[in-house]
Structures are given as C-alpha cells and as structure tokens.
Amino acid sequence: MGRGLADPAGEPGRTGKRLSRDAGLRAELELCERFQIPHSQFLGGDGRWSDLDRAKALAWAEWQRSMCPECRTRLEEWDRERGGDPHAYVTDTLRCPGCELIEQERDHVPNDRSGYGVKIQLLPRDQYEQRP
Hints:
By secondary structure, the protein is mainly alpha-helical. Helices cover 42% and strands 0% of the residues. The longest helix is centred in the middle third of the chain and has 15 residues, at 51-65.
C-alpha cells in the first residue's frame, strides 16, 4: 500500500533525500498536513498512524524547517558541495491584479493609529453586493 520512505532516503541522517527528488510525495504530504491525516490514509488505508506515517510526517516537518520562509528554497539546492546548483532557480515576474488592487487600497489606510489593524480583503463582486 503506497511507497515506503525506506528507499534510499530511509537511511538514518539522510532525511529529505527522497523528498528532494519526489515532487509527488511532497504534494501528498502537504495535503496530509492540511487535512491532518496519515499518509497511509491518503493512499487508502484505515487511518491509523503507522511507524512509517510518523517517519514521513517528521521528515516533512524537517523539510519545511529547512526552507527559507521568504523564497521557499533550501540552501542545499544552491550549494554545489551538497549536490546543488548556484543557478538552480531563475527569477520570473508576475503581476497579480488582486494584489495590485489591495496595494492601491492600502494607500488609503491612514499611517497613524487609526489605521492600525485595518485588513484589506478581496471579495467576489456578487458577495460584496449581497452584504447587508
């Protein structure tokens, strides 16, 4: 039932090796974290946490901690000595109309205390128009 964590990454001290090369497993574990279920249940199991499920959850938590909170890359991805590439990523520009609208509205929020705690959200037009 499912893939084991104990292929090459299952060796002690090598947590994350399989996560590094298996985007599918990363996506599965991300969903398991979101829904707070063991990986074996995601794969169709009975929902009880096995030793393998716990190992995967711990490896996923360690993987998450190893990522930069801003750019979401890992230092070893850039480091040749650790199997990375200094040119592993390239930048790309994306303009999000929603973010642009939020930034424009933020210009209207006072910078003094009266603006503290003001949150700007996007609502679908039909929901906005139906508000009381």
